[in-house]
Structure formats: structure tokens, C-alpha cells
Amino acid sequence: MAEKLSESVWTSFLKKQRLELEDKALVKALAAYDKTDEDKPEPRLKALEEVIKQIPEQVKLLVKRKKELGDKPFGEAKDKLYALLEEAESQQKETKAAAAAAAAASKGKKDDDEEEADTPVLLTTKMIPLLRELKKGEAEMHAMICTAGKNTAVLIMRRAISPSRRKLLAEAVDAKGGMKYIVGECRFEDKVLVFIVQSPASQLAKRIRQALLEQTEMRFKVKVRGDDGVEENDGEDEDEEQPAAQAQKQAAPPGGPASAEQTLYVQRLRKVRERYEQALKEQHPEATKLRAVMGYASEKADGQKDYAAASKALEQLEKLLGASVGGGNGTRPVAGAASDTSAPSSDAPDTQTKTPRDGAFVALQQSRLAWEAARKKASADLLLVKQTILEDFDGEPEIGEAAEAAGRLEGALATFDMSLTNLLDRALTAADTDQRRRLHVEAGAMVTRYRAHLAANELLSRIDDNPFVAVSIHKSLDTALKFMAGKLA
């Protein structure tokens, strides 16, 4: 049962336990919260912020009197404070949701009052203030893009765009048929207008940039993130070069030529991209796996500059594509496919036969992303705990003990190094299905060992309840490992 958040609950607890604490600031914050109205979220949020701020401070004061109070009174008081904190955070979440709903309702009413019919100004003058607002970097808006032949039109709005707006876009591209509609969101990042779309990103960025220029006379650098894991820039600052020379230039690091690994990756990407996009367009039976492989290759090349691993992933993609695109009886040869891929090689994954490991690649990639996110968060939280301990006891007589305690945290995450990530990388870039399955099993076994270590490690089991700063080290690791155990079973 949730703890009721009020001044009377806290003071009654202290009276019952016969405790006298230096809690004036907390009592004042709770009293201020008691006076707020549930129907007025802004004042209530302000009061809750003060309560959430004061409870950890009260815990710190409590820790300093632990020996004086005794283990049992200390433990009960700490548990009470954390129960109040949990309820305060829950109330804060609910109040924020209520405030957001009220703001949305107010904004929606205003939009309803101001919304116009489907007129061309929605694609021109009405978009100019929206683009200026996006340029400030503080907003995210909805977008719908229409392509037909060489023509493109873009509509940006604050609210979700109704499918009925397609007619307006179709008229703008001046087409009677063959229109393709792409929906997504857009925002401004690092001086670039970014579109996150529910479609492959290929060849969209330049079209969007030109459409915005024609519709609003505003020039932007544009980036498109597709659901295939690929990011595409508009290339506005690039020279009109031959494709091979342009790819070489893109791959080259600042101040020097491209490495052999970079060049190989770029060449392989250019070779496979058209077949990949055609496969998705024709609803390839392994489309999910294809997107996962391409996303992994993009992450390795663009994010980590690991072109060797990215090339291996593209090699795997070529094997998955085989010599045809499409699915079912509609497969057809790909123009220009290399002669050595005229049929699936003997070591290529069986993309047609369902096995207990079908979809293993996706599970491996999901596991890797989940684990790296959890590991990085745990490391950052651990550093925060150490710094907070040393700051709180700076100048205090107990600084020596505090420094010793902080030092014990140093190796708390030593077991959770890069070993599992590296193993998952090897599985993702395995040369054949059998090797991937073996590494898949090894990764599952390592996850089991990690879970056992996490459960047995007393320091990690208790660290989320530390009295100094709110963290979720154990929770983050445990949640990720449970997720991975299910994926790698």
C-alpha cells in the first residue's frame, strides 16, 4: 500500500517512534504540499519538487546520527523516508501527466480554433513560423512527405497530421498517381533539421531540403533517419563528384586519406544498398533481419568508426539477400548481381527454414544495445555515488571512512567489463549460421553467470538504497540481464 504523503504522517511517525530529528525543512515542505490543490498542477509540482529535494537531505542527517539512534530506529526512519520519497515521486509523475494533459487540451483547443482548411498556405507561409520555432531546438513536430517522380512536398504541423491532408500534398506535387506518403517527426539537432521517418531513408534528405527551399524560401541542412537504421544527410556541402570519388571523400577522416578498411566498407555499402532497398520495397520475407543487419553496420561505421566490423555485417547482408530480392514466388534476379552470388552459398544463413534460432540476429543486436546502455548508466551512477559521498563528508571527521567506502566502490562493476559486448559483437559478425549459434549459446551462458554474480554481490544489491543520492545501478543491470536472458534463451 502506498504511503500517504503529508506532514501529519511524518510527525505522527516520529511521535510514535519517540524520535527527535532536525527536520524543520522537511516538515515545512510537507506542510506546503498539504496546502496544494490537485486541480492546480503547477503549484503542486513546485511543492513536490521541494519535498523530493528535502527527503534525501533528511536521510543524510539521519546517517550522521545512526550510532546515536541505534540500528532499528535508524532503519525504520530511513524506510519511512524512502516510502515518502517513493510516493512523492509517484505524485510528481501523475501531476506532470495532468499538467501535460491540461496544456495539450488548451493547445488543442487553440489549434482547433485556428486550424484552417486544406489550403496551399499550410505548405508555404504557415510553415515558416513553425520552421523558425524548430530552429530554436526546443520543439518536435509532425511531418508528412509526399514524393511522386522527381517532385516532393513537405508538410510540417504541431499536431499529428490527418491522412486527409494527403490530398493537399498530392496537389502540391502535381501528380495524378504514383504518390508515396511518408510520415514521421522532425526536430533541430546541431544546426541540422532532422526527420525521423517510418520508411527507409534513402534519397529523401536532398528532396526534403529542396522542397522546403521551394515552399518557404528557407534553406536548411537536412538529415533523415529511417526505420532501416540508416541515416542520410542531404550532402548540401559536397561537390558534384563521381560516385566512387564522392564515397572515397566521405570515408576519409579529416586531414588524411581513407584507410583500406574504410574504402572497402564504402564500396561494399554502395554495392549492396540498392539491392537492400529493393528487398524492403518488395517485402522480403527476412525484412526484419535485413534492417537489423543494416542498422548494426551503420552503428559500427558511423558511431564507432569500426569499418572492419561494419564490412563484415554488410557481407552478412549480402548473404541474406542472396541473388534475388522479393519474397515468395515473386523473386527475381537482381541486375548487376555478382556471379558468385547467383545462388545462396552453402554457408549462408537459411532464411526460409524456421528453426529454434530463427531471428537470432535481431535478438543478439537487441541484447547488445540493452547491455551497453545499462552498463554505461551503471558506471555513470556509480561515479555519482562516489563523488556524492566524498562531497558530503568533505571537512567532516569521518572523511577518512568516507574515502575508504568510496574506494570500495571502485571495483564494484569490474565483472561487467566489455567481455559480454565483445562476445555479442563476434556473434553479430559471425561468418556462418553455425558459428553464430555457438556464440549465441556462449552469450546466454555469460548472461546467466552475470545474473548470479549480480544476485550474490551484496554491495551491488544494496547500492540503489544508498542514503546519499538516488541511483538505479542494480536495477539497470538486473533489468537488462533479465531482458537478455529471454532473448538469448
Features:
single chain, 489 residues, alpha+beta, Pyruvoyl-Dependent Histidine Decarboxylase, Chain B, 6-stranded mixed β-sheet, two-stranded antiparallel sheet, 18 helices, flat
Question: How would you describe what is shown here?
Answer:
By secondary structure, this protein is an alpha+beta fold. It folds into 4 domains: 7-113, no CATH class; 120-233, Pyruvoyl-Dependent Histidine Decarboxylase, Chain B; 243-341, no CATH class; 360-487, no CATH class. It is built from 18 helices and 8 strands. Helix 2 (24-34) packs antiparallel against helix 3 (41-64), helix 10 (260-281) runs antiparallel to helix 11 (287-303) and helix 16 (433-456) packs antiparallel against helix 18. It is flat, with a radius of gyration of 29 Å. The protein starts with 6 loop residues before the first helix and ends with a helix. The model is unreliable at 237-257 and 323-358 (pLDDT under 50).
Radius of gyration: 29 Å
The shape is: flat
The order of strands across the largest sheet is: 2-1-3-4-5-6
Low-pLDDT segments: 237-257, 323-358
Structural class estimated from helices and strands? alpha+beta
Residue share in β-strands? 5-15%
Our count of domains comes out at 4
The biggest sheet amounts to: 6 strands, mixed
Helix content: 55-70%
> SSE order in H/E notation?
HHHHHHEEHEEHEEHHHHEEHHHHHH
Annotation field: number of helices: 18
